[in-house]
Design a protein that fits this description.
about 70% helix, mainly alpha, 8 helices, single chain
């Protein structure tokens, strides 16, 4: 394990913990509701989606990123790449909110009482009347931006170093 891979795990762990703390406002793991007859169906659905979005997807992401070429750089650039890629974890709350708390699917995941509680909070970021794309599109943009930029920079630098090694390119520059 090199310094870049170690920093990836470090930053990923910190940002993942921060993301899990941030999603608590959506009540993603209502285990106590599993034992109540009137709420167990919505609780099961919410827990299932939350496990996939908040746990399975980030674990899959770190597994894919850990062995990727940009994570083999052993300079400070690699550490910067690791930090940037880890920022993509802040997409979890946006994607989870886009799936569970929108005007089309909110009744599938929340009881009418819980939906009313969200409305009573007067917090615009948790508005259950928002369409799904108001949250999922920015969440996906976090992933594309924060994972895409380091990969784009890495492969651009790789291409430049390759072109510099070719004799005919040295003559034309």
């Amino acid at each position: 394990m090199n310094v870049t891979q170690t920093s990836l795990l470090f930053f990923y762990g910190i940002f993942w913990a921060a993301s899990l703390n941030a999603i608590n406002v959506l009540k993603p793991f209502p285990t106590h509701q599993l034992f109540k007859k009137e709420t167990k169906h919505t609780a099961r659905k919410r827990i299932a989606v939350s496990v996939v979005v908040a746990n399975v997807l980030p674990i899959t992401g770190v597994w894919l990123l850990y062995g990727s070429h940009p994570m083999t750089i052993t300079t400070s650039t690699g550490i910067l790449f690791s930090a940037c890629v880890s920022l993509s974890l802040f997409s979890i709350i946006r994607i989870l909110q886009g799936i569970m708390l929108n005007k089309c699917s909110r009744n599938y995941f929340y009881t009418p009482k819980e939906i009313q509680e969200f409305k009573d909070e007067k917090d615009e970021s948790k508005n259950p009347d928002d369409p799904w794309h108001h949250h999922i599109v920015p969440g996906l943009a976090y992933i594309v931006l924060f994972v895409g930029i380091p990969f784009l920079v890495y492969y651009s630098l790789l291409l430049v170093s390759f072109l510099k090694s070719i004799e005919w390119f040295k003559c034309t520059v």
